Amino acid sequence: MICGLTIWPAVRTMLEQINQSGMKMAEINLNLERCKGCGLCIGACPIDNLRISGTLNRQGVEPAEVIDPNRCTGCGMCFRICPDMAIEIRRAPSKAGSEVAG
Fold first, then answer.
1. Nearest to 69 by CA among 97, 98, 27, 41
2. Measured between alpha carbons, how far is 27 from 42 in angstroms, rounded to an integer?
3. pLDDT of 3-39, one tens digit each?
4. Dihedral sign, Cα of residue 47, residue 66, residue 1, residue 91
5. By the 8 A CB rule, do 11 and 46 touch?
6. Residue 54, by phi and psi: left (phi above 0), alpha (psi -120 to 50) or beta?
7. pTM of the full predicted structure?
8. Percent helix, percent strand, percent coil in the chain, to nearest 5
9. Is the pLDDT score of 99 beyond 90?
10. Which one of 1.10.10.10, 3.40.50.1980, 3.30.70.20, 3.40.605.10 gives the CATH number of domain 2-94?
């Protein structure tokens, strides 16, 4: 665990550097009606790209929301930790994959 704590800032820096190219790496969709606003995804996001929305859904809770959809790296940490399965991530096809398919 201690090793993970020391390596996490380096992972965060790497993800942000990769994403600075401006190319959309993934598409993230949050089901705002399914979300119960527990905040686990917010803590799991390595680039701090999620927050509590400040508006109520039909359940009367404040769901999580994406701050900047273009910054999502598609790491899947939020998806994996969400107990409500309210998050869907679609990774953008890689250049190599599109070249091979073409």
1. 27
2. 17
3. 444 556 666 666 666 556 556 678 899 999 999 999 9
4. negative
5. yes
6. left
7. 0.70
8. 35, 15, 45
9. no
10. 3.30.70.20
